[in-house]
Amino acid sequence: MARVLSGVQPSGDLHLGNYLGAIQQWVANQGSDDAFYTIVDLHALTQSIDPAELRRRTLETAAGFLAAGLDPNQVTIFVQSHVPAHPRLAWLLECTATMGELNRMTQFKDKGRGTESVRAGLFTYPVLMAADILAYEAEFVPVGEDQRQHLELTRNLAIRFNHHYGEVFVIPEATIPTVAARVMDLQLPNQKMSKSIPSPLGRIDLFEAPEDIAKKIKKAVTDTDGIVAYNPETKPGVSSLLDLLSAATGTSPGDLAAKYTRYGDLKADVADALITLLSPMRERYLHLMSDPGELTALLRRGATKADEIANATYERAAAAIGLLPR
Ligand code: TYM
Fold first, then answer.
1. By C-alpha distance, which of 134, 176, 180 is closest to 159?
2. Catalytic residues
3. How far is CA 109 from CA 39, 71, 103, 187, in A?
4. 20 to 30 A from 211, CA-CA: which of 110, 123, 256, 286?
5. What is the pLDDT of residue 108?
6. pLDDT digits (tens, 9 = 90+) for 27-47
7. Does ligand 1 come within 6 angstroms of the Cβ of 204?
8. Which of 6, 8, 150 to mutate to test the pocket of ligand 1 (most atoms within 8 A of CB)?
């Protein structure tokens, strides 16, 4: 069984981009891989977040994983900060990474915008992500397109470490879906749908009420030429609706485009398909959130299993780099 690891920041509600870009693949492959899925609360600290909100969202994200279809008997779900090997390994890797390579990370450039007040943790964020992955000897990392550069850095850090200190790390590979790897904002179709952009009309949250989903799709930005065609460059809004329908139905966006002559009909079908896809998840989510005790117990079990594996990797890396055993 291939070892797999991926994660989500508990910095906002899970949205359709998180599901179609990442979580859907996790659910589809459970049972055929040995998977670890983590709620990366330490990463959420790289931007301003209220302590009580962080705690609440960490639990909500865990409920979201289960509601979206992950089965805790088949995969390991845990909170990143419950496993001390993550920041410990991150430090070893930080001491092999260079300012130059971290400066080239586009996510830092976008979020940090070069300001003095940007948190140092946001700069070193990709190294902590590398530690998340390498600690589990993950061969595959199922993520959306926006994480591709982080995976490249992870591979480079692992290769460099192995070269200098001996074969400690497995070199991981990103697995990025062929459809909906980059779900776009419904109001700003040239930007990805994101937790951090305050655009309630542009984002569909995973456990949103059906009437709100219908309203947002109805209001989604298209264009004025009135032709249903798939071309993300010239028709980003319409193409993004076709991508959503494609991800929900399994038919290619080009084939779907040929079936429609009016934006209104396309939008109605996108809304119906999304509501059909998401409604059962919403029911499960509301049910799970009514019993947080069960979620906490499940996360504790997950952390125990994760801790064993991650700590063993950390110990090997620490020994290889020259730290004296305790
Ligand atoms: P995060 O929390 O921003 O997103 C979680 C997952 O959702 C995917 N995603 C999208 N996919 C398609 N379209 C979108 N609009 C969209 N928005 C988000 C992301 O690609 C991701 O797979 N750095 C990571 C968290 C992380 C991690 C890790 C991931 C920390 N450690 C180790 C994998 C392995 C992040 O901020 O994801």
1. 134
2. 111, 192, 195
3. 24, 36, 8, 23
4. 256
5. 85
6. 999 999 999 999 999 999 999
7. no
8. 8
In a mutational test of the pocket of ligand 1, which residue from 143, 175, 197, 204 has the highest number of ligand atoms less than 8 Å from its CB? 143
For ligand 1, mutation pick of 147, 195, 199 (most atoms within 8 Å of CB): 147
Q: In this predicted structure, what is the pLDDT of residue 113?
A: 65
Give the Å distance between the CA of 19 and the centre of ligand 1: 10
At 119-171, the pLDDT tens digits run: 999 999 999 999 999 999 999 999 999 999 999 999 999 999 999 999 999 99
Q: How far is the CA of 326 from the centre of ligand 1 (A)?
A: 36
Q: For residue range 40-96, list pLDDT tens digits in order.
A: 999 999 999 999 999 999 999 999 999 999 999 999 999 999 999 999 999 999 999
Find the 144 Cα to ligand 1 centroid distance in Å: 6
H-state helical runs in the chain: 16-18, 24-29, 41-44, 51-67, 85-94, 99-103, 106-112, 120-134, 148-165, 210-218, 236-249, 253-258, 263-289, 292-321
Q: Is 133 a pocket residue for ligand 1 (Cβ < 6 Å)? A: yes
Whether residue 111 is predicted with pLDDT greater than 90 in this model: the reply is no
3-state secondary structure of 137: coil
Write out the two tokens for 173. 């590979």
Q: How far is the CA of 258 from the centre of ligand 1 (A)?
A: 32
Q: What is the pLDDT of residue 114?
A: 61
107 CA distance to ligand 1 middle (Å)? 11
Residue 196 banded pLDDT, cuts 50, 70, 90: confident
The residue whose C-alpha atom lies closest to atom 17 belonging to ligand 1 is 17
pLDDT reported for residue 52: 98
